[in-house]
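User: I'm writing a tutorial on reading structure tokens. Could you give me a worked example: one chain, its sequence, then its tokens, then a sentence or two explaining what the tokens reveal?
Assistant: Sure. Here is the example chain.
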Amino acid sequence: TGTAAAWTALALHPEIALPHTHMAESLLRSGSESELLLRNQPWFNPNKRCVGLMLHSFPWAPSALVRAVELCQRDLFIQLVREPISHLVSCYNHAVRTKAFELLLKGGRDALCHLEDSLIPPEDLVLAELARGRLFSYGRIPARFFGHWHAIDMTQLLPDQIGQTMRELYSLLGVDATFTSAQFFRKQVDEIRTRMIVDTISLHLAGQDIQARIAYAGDSRLHPEGFTEEIAHCPPPSLPGWSDEDIVLLAHAPSWRKLPDCLRSRLVESSHINQAFATQILPPWLERVTLWQHATAPFLITEFRPDFEGRIRKAIIDDVEDMLSVHPHLRESWKW
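And here are its predicted structure tokens:
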């Protein structure tokens, strides 16, 4: 739940045009923030409301902010936030899971034995996160370029609240606020979905190398770079932590479409790909993910040591109080 949940819900609205979920991050990593919005331009439909995304992980560039105002043509900046301590706990657990998955991909089962030695201590990770920027000090930079600054607590995007939250968001954006979708109430993103998004496999069909990913059915909107073709389906695995949605093999559309039309149809309609997916592709992938889950479980945390949490609160209290003074509706849920 978080940025991806809001992004998905916004993208479903017929009056809103967005660049791809992960487009912003991939372009920002290239080092040119101004290029981000220029290259996102083809995704925008001039007849729809335009929305742009930038991540807290990256610094703001004034040129990109000016371009955002020009492209979006809306005097509104929305910042998605989370109670700071729970956010930092989540960041640490995400780092643990990411490191374990990297080890598994590079070295297999044996590499996971070295997970503990590869982990960053929670204290070091928190210091790195705080150095990137804090809630108020980060948000006030783009807020200067927009007439209105609105903050949304990410917990408001959970299934029991997302309907009301999206009505408020749609109203702020000036589109039909009565729009709703059953997809609002799906489990939008979890750690298994995150691994699906970054784990690419290669298929060799009729002399053509085709990149593919394993995904939940209907999740092509979460995958960047053209992974849009659902070419095989399986029922959900009976494993802890898995959604009850079907599992699909999601092909990279440009490479998949290089195969002759008749061959693509024959592969799908004859169930050859379904059989290969169910018996050869999915089982080892599930085994790998299960190994990853078991390896990370001992290192995940639910809270920091009381003395360390006290130090965090002392370090960020001024920033949090500044944020709450501008956005007082957050105070009740954060309990600061």
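What the tokens reveal: Confidence is low (pLDDT under 50) at residues 21-44. The longest strand covers residues 208-216.
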